[in-house]
Amino acid sequence: MKYYVTLHGQELEVELFRCSDGNLRARLGDREYDVDLSEIEGARRYSVLLDRRSFDVVVDAQATKLHLQVSGHGLDVLVEDDRQRAARRISESAPAGPVTIYSAMPGIVRGVLVEPGQAVEEGQALVILEAMKMENEIPAEQSGVVREVLITPESVVEGGAPLVVLDPPPAQ
Length: 172
Hints:
By secondary structure, the protein is mainly β. The chain has 2 domains: 2-82, Glycoprotein, Type 4 Pilin (2-Layer Sandwich), CATH 3.30.700.30; 96-167, CATH 2.40.50.100. It has 1 helix and 16 strands. The strands form 3 sheets. The protein has an 8-stranded antiparallel beta barrel with strand order 1-2-3-4-5-6-7-8. Strands 9-16-14-11 form a 4-stranded antiparallel sheet, with no helix packed on it. Strands 13-12-10-15 form a 4-stranded antiparallel sheet, with no helix packed on it. It is globular and about 50 Å long. It starts with a strand and ends in a 5-residue tail after the last strand.
């Protein structure tokens, strides 16, 4: 899968893929790297082996924005796939108006964290969606006010299903 990683204002294209031997590899430009990723101490800490160099990584994620602690050093990065990158570019050039938040994957709605009329901030969790036995927070892609909640707890949704509609925040 291809990702676009923005670090210190520079966008890098990173492709992750499995080799025929099952090992994970990362392609950055014309270089490829062996990657071994193991989750430790819960869902936020990882041991990353990158071309035989070991890194301890703690991840604090809000939507596509990540704060990483890599071997004790803090990094703020933006990570987007093709769909997220295209949506961001469209939203940056689109007039302000209602925004529909869609499910990125099929799953079961385990929680609806907002209600109509509620103000939300960009990155704030709106819905908890269970997919592949993991709970995923679906965040607001922009700040705004909840216009409509289109799902209910325990409902089953398909990938691409509309979940929540947000209006732009009121003018100040």
